[in-house]
Every structure is written in C-alpha cells, then in structure tokens.
Model the fold of this input.
Amino acid sequence: MTGITVPADRLVELGAAILVAHGVPEDDARLVADSLVTADMWGHPSHGMLRLDWYVARLRAGVMTAVTEPETVLDGGAVVVLDGRDGVGQIATERACALAVDRARQHGIGLVAVRFSNHFGTAAYWTRRIADAGCVGILTTNGSPAMAPWGGREKTVGANPWSIATPGGSHGPVVLDIANTGVARGKIYAALQKGESIPDTWAIDSSGTPTTDPRAAIEGILLPMAGHKGYGISFMMDVLSGVLTGSGYATDVVGPYVPDQRSGCGHLVVAIDIDRILGRDEFDRRIDDLIARTKSVPLAAGVSEVFYPGEIENRAEERGRAEGVFLPDKTVDELKSLAVDAGVPFDLVPAEVV
Amino acid sequence: MTGITVPADRLVELGAAILVAHGVPEDDARLVADSLVTADMWGHPSHGMLRLDWYVARLRAGVMTAVTEPETVLDGGAVVVLDGRDGVGQIATERACALAVDRARQHGIGLVAVRFSNHFGTAAYWTRRIADAGCVGILTTNGSPAMAPWGGREKTVGANPWSIATPGGSHGPVVLDIANTGVARGKIYAALQKGESIPDTWAIDSSGTPTTDPRAAIEGILLPMAGHKGYGISFMMDVLSGVLTGSGYATDVVGPYVPDQRSGCGHLVVAIDIDRILGRDEFDRRIDDLIARTKSVPLAAGVSEVFYPGEIENRAEERGRAEGVFLPDKTVDELKSLAVDAGVPFDLVPAEVV
Done:
C-alpha cells in the first residue's frame, strides 16, 4: 500500500480547518481532528482520518450539529444525564468525561449518561483522558446493528465498543478498548479502502455464507467475538448505552457512514477516583508490580515481548508524534478533496515517502 | 451419566446443615447453599453443589472463616471499601451488594470494593439480586491464575468472571455472566467429574500443547476467549477486583479448590439506581421493546428460538424449583460423605430416578 507519512500536528491542523469551514468551533474542531489522528498513530486507521469525510457529510446534511450544546436533562449529584442534541460525538463525550471526573472527585464515583450523541472516534481516546485525571475510566457506547442476536439471521446488535482505562503507574495508561464483533466494522472498511480481502471468520454475507469480500461483509452480518459470549456482552452494552441513557438502541442507531440520518447513539461514562478508594500512590505501586510480573513471564515461541493492555498504542503514539503519521493514498486524496471543497489550503508536506 | 433429581429446598437444607456443622451461622449457611443449588438449577453444575466439598475443606483448614464479619475500611458515601477478613465469599458479597444498592438509592450510583474475600459462587447470583432491587448490577472478581498473558507461557491471569444484570421489564432479569477464558475452569472440573474429554480449543497442557484431557488442562493453561481481547478484559478485571480494591492480584490469588491457603480474591460491586437515571417504568417499557425486537428476528437454520442474555437460566431455575435439581452420583456421594462427617442426617429423597 502506498501513501505518505506526515507530521501529526499538521494533520490535526488540516482536519480542524476542514471542520471549522463547516461551522465547528475551533477548539472543538481541533479536538475532533486530534481524536482521529491519534487513532491513526495507534495503528487503527479504521478509526482515523478516513472518517473525516463521513463527519463532513453528516455536518452538511444537518444530521450532526456543528455547534455542540448538550442539555442537562437531570443532575443527581453523582449521576448526570445529558442530551447531546445531535451534536458532535467527541464534544459531547469530552463534556461527559469532564463531568464524570468532577463528580468522582466529589463522590468517589461519577456517572454521566449521554443520549442522542454521535460517533465519538475511539472509546480509548476518552477513557485515557479519565485515567490521566487519576481515575478509572469506563465508557460504553452503542452503534448501528452489525450482528444478529445469537441464533438469528437479521442484524439488531451493534458492535457496541467499550473501554476501561486506568493510570499505569510509571508506565502509560493501561487501556482496554474493544468492539464485540470478531473484528471492528471499521477494519472491514479499512480493508475495503486498501483493496484487501478479509478472513472468512469475520462475517457472513447477507445469505448467511462466510465471506472474504469486505463489501459483501459490510452488506452482510458480522460474527460476535467469543460466540454467544460476545452477543451477550454487546446486548448489555446496548442496554447500558441506549436503553438506560434514554437514547436509541438496537435498530434505531444509525452508523456514522450514513450521511443523512440522525445517529441516535448513546454513551455511558463512569469515573472512579482512585484517591477515594485506595490512594493514588498505593495504586501506582500495585499496578507497576502487576505490569512487571506480567511482562516477566517466559515467552511463547516466536514472541519477543508480552504487552500490558494499551502498551502497543502507548508506544505507537510516542513514535507517531516524533516521526509522523502514515496515510494511505486514498485517504490523502479524500482529505485533499475535502480541503478543496471547504476552501482550505491543502498543505500536507510528507515527512517521508513510504 | 447417572444421578438423582432431588427437590431444591431439601438440597439447600442439607447444604446449610453441613455448613452450620462447621460453624457457619444458619442464615449465612442457607444463603451459601442456595447460591450453589441455584447454579445447579441453571444448568451450571461446575458452580453448584460439587463446590461444597471445597468450601468445607477450607473451613476446616481455617483459611476461610466460618463467621463472616467484614470490616469497613473506608466509607466515602457513594463508595465504600470492605475488608472481607477471609470470611465466606457469598456473605461478604451479599453485604457488599446490599450496601451498593443502599448507596445507589442515595447517590444514584454506589460502589463497594471488597478485599480479602473468598469464592462467592456465580457472579450472576449477586447481580440478579441487585437487578431485583431495581438497579443495574455490575460485579467483577478475580481468581487464581488460569491463563498466560498474551504471548506468554506462564499463568498470571485469572479467568476473572464478571457480570452485568438489569431488570428485564415483564421478563426475568437480563443477565450476562462470563469468565474470560474460552471456558470457565469449572467446566473442566465438571468434565473431570463426569469422566468426559474436552474440546482441544479450551486449553494447552503444561508443555504448551492443546489437550482433550481435563486433568492435563487443569494442570496446563486455559486459553482466553476471543484471543488477545479476552486477555485484555481479564487483565482489567484483575485491576478492578484486585489492584484497585487493595486485595490480592495475579499470582497472589488462590482458587477455592486449594484447601489450605488464603484466597486473597477481591470483588468490585457497582449498583446504578435506574429510577435516578431514567425512571423505572420507562426503562421497563424500553427493555421489553428491546427483548421483543431481539426475539422476533428470523432464525438461523436449526435454531428454534433466540434468547435474551439470562433467559435460559431464568427458565431453568423456574423448572428446577418445580421439578427438582439433578445431581450426578459423584456429587451425591460427596454430599453423603460430607453429611456423615458432619453428623448431619443424609435424607435426600429422589424426586425422580434419572
């Protein structure tokens, strides 16, 4: 695959300028762009700048509001319910995370339910912020139907990503971020973007047959991770993110790649103030010990290192900020076209030709 | 497999009498026995009465205290930390769940961290109680090392079960309860108990080779569900249940089948009062709708029904309470021997010979 490697900050600036041209306030635009560029740096291009095109289409159609002004539906102290009013998912989520941390400082734990939001990028981008504030961060969301309920052959269950992050002591944050499909739908879009085929364990086509064609998989049905367990987890994430928050759920939720329909997705954010449970120093000492013991086990054949969850992304982000972010040609072309349409100068200078 | 089907209440009475003979207070003993018998009714004998023998051995050795008196380490309003002081896991967990619900009533959300507890039976038994109180129940625990960290070949990661339950509207509760291994370790014990072999995808033996022998699997290493995702989930459950609560973690946690060592396991309990987020009636209406939509999808070939998570157990429990609980001969023999040793009359009358 050919493409270019560009400096991360320049890429954020370009993305932000394109969003500003569509009415998104400058600080908000920079945050959204950073959330996408960071996913590219982590090596998750499925959730990276290739999504900017989708966001712009939704802003243009008016189904995502450029100026995000969440409404407080209910404020119960340790629990808050926000209505995202169809604003930008990243911005509604940033407000929710800040509120959850604030309430955790007061009560030990804080919960913020967000209804009628939009796609927020990666879940880990947000739980990492909560971890950086010294809390345990938990975030669930629901997405458009991607899987059949176990034993069915019609999609009602989203991939419904969820993430848990904590501080990592002397390391970067410890972070889990998974979709409950065998693979994230975005990885199939990335394969489509790259023109690659996919393993036949990822999805069945619309007739129910396993497929290696990413386009047939997108039109077909993803399989859950871990069989019925993945179905169960994803169902519960929809209950938490959609049913409980008062947002859309099941087939009511629309994906970010649909340009002209309201998303309906919801999020549940929980922050736990570590200082109010155990004390931060003690937690850091213990997590350092857990990481050290985990990384010191004998290795399986062909393996060079055991990683704690999130470690690979921690390293990749450090490398990306220093050395630049790789973008495939197709994404570069899309960005160029978005920039031209928005009247924004397209000034990406490759850090290195790949 | 031969065995007998016995009335559930008689089985609970027998289990309780055996525990009382070892110093467990009567109400506590009945609760512990009910938690095991209920698992048998659900069709999860791996977590059923076959474990009573293990509990008795631990009570006799003095590593599990018969009279459970948790100490409140910290009371921060919405968050509480308890030290189980090596008491019976079920009793420490019952206190923690009641406290979490009480704090959720006051603050909208309540969290109780429990350190130095013991095995508590199934996680679902406890989250169902929280759901019955009108709350979302979330419970995590950590167990003795069962898996290698991804890429390693030495056990440091437990199966670390976790459960989420909510009320199910006009249905029984909606319940997720999973271990992060491909299978629960208890299923391998159940296969051993029944003299059956296991699929070769469940575990590797101590040399790293996949095995169909349950004994070799118990001595070997379980594989996580969903590959590296299962490793990540289980690692985080150890962070929440062990590192954050101030309890044991990783290789410090000892399994309930070890008769003479302190458990060191911890639990994290969260309750969310649905009435403080959305209102119970609205939640019930929405979950009924989600269940109806889930159960009405077209079925895959050979499938007779789609179930919501927990539905199979809801039905099995109803049937078990009406028709009795099946016990394999080996478990019956163990119970008889426990009863004789404890000087308790063994009076199980089969409801039906199987």
